[in-house]
Amino acid sequence: MLLYRSISRLALKGQSNINALTRSNLCTDALSSSPATAVSVKTVQEKWTSRFQTENVPEATTSIANILAHVLQLPCLGDVDKNKDAVLSDAQLAKIEELCECRIARMPVQYIIREWDFRDMTLKMVPPVFIPRPETEELVELILQQIDTQKEFSFLEIGCGSGAITLSLLKQVPKATAIALDQSKLACELTLENAKRYDFSEKLRIFKHKLVDKLPDELAGHRFDMIVSNPPYVPSGQLQRLDPEVKVYEDLRALDGGPDGLTVIKAILTIASDHLADEGILWLEVDTSHPPLIAGYLEEHGERLGLRYVSSYKDLFRKERFVEIVKV
């Protein structure tokens, strides 16, 4: 499902061989000829809502609203309707046409406007780095509810993507320090850029590292108060069923969890065993089928790993989505 920005705090939230960056270049070439003047925001909004619906583009109304807000440099979507009678310049119309053609090509809005809101932060987005979902905002909230935000706190994020989780925690926990890992060079660079945007780069170390079952050598012996991850958890056989916005444009390495979706999760459990401090917590965002499987795995291997399954938690759709595990 396509995600979109709302006025309120909570955002409602084969073919895959096409390289996301190449697709981006193709869609940005689809400029229309010089448009006529005296065209209002309302006219353009109605035109593209209808076109998106005809082309079966998901979230047609919010797609064009986000594009208009971006081009007009409006702070929130509600301001689009407030400016519905404004006349667009030829340059604005051309830009809107360009970005809407990208949406017709099923590029996610986040990549089209090159930024997205996560909690109370606006983060830069670039394809094909994984786009943070609204459910992950709930994971951050769960963590903040269970830690003392005024104490010193060290944590590791595995698979940082745009840096959404790490930077949200650093913003809310003044004495926190973090290490973030990702196998994607682009993701590491994007996390650093977003960290600099909010002046958190001094509190954060970033490593490009392909996860197997250990951390980079520089972190040998390091212990954390918490490890958090929204890891690849989609079973490999289900990747081709994903929406085009995901399987064409996003990095499938950030999604592919192996045959049962648990390959990376099991590697993270091994890392948590080695790198969590006593009574440290591991938080995972997982597929809704995974909590009982993870609980069963720890029943069998928990004593060896020194880990105990604590609980699972539901997301806003009432699906079991988050797992809490403690180092014992």
Automatic annotation (TrEMBL):
Keyword Membrane attached: no
Residue ranges of domain Release factor glutamine methyltransferase N-terminal in the record:
46-113
> Which superkingdom, per the lineage?
Eukaryota
What does the UniProt keyword field contain? Methyltransferase, S-adenosyl-L-methionine, Transferase
A GO cellular component annotation in the UniProt record: mitochondrion
Q: Which GO terms describe its molecular function?
A: nucleic acid binding; peptide chain release factor N(5)-glutamine methyltransferase activity
According to its UniProt record, what is one Pfam family this protein matches?
A: PrmC_N
Keyword Zinc among record annotations: no
Q: Which GO terms describe its biological process?
A: methylation
List the catalysed reactions.
L-glutaminyl-[peptide chain release factor] + S-adenosyl-L-methionine = N(5)-methyl-L-glutaminyl-[peptide chain release factor] + S-adenosyl-L-homocysteine + H(+)
InterPro entries attached to this UniProt entry: DNA_methylase_N6_adenine_CS, HemK-like, N5-glutamine_MTase, PrmC_N, RF_methyltr_PrmC, SAM-dependent_MTases_sf, Small_mtfrase_dom
Q: Give the EC number.
A: 2.1.1.297
Residue stretches making up the Methyltransferase small domain: 141-235
Q: What is this protein called?
A: peptide chain release factor N(5)-glutamine methyltransferase
Q: Which gene encodes it?
A: 6050044
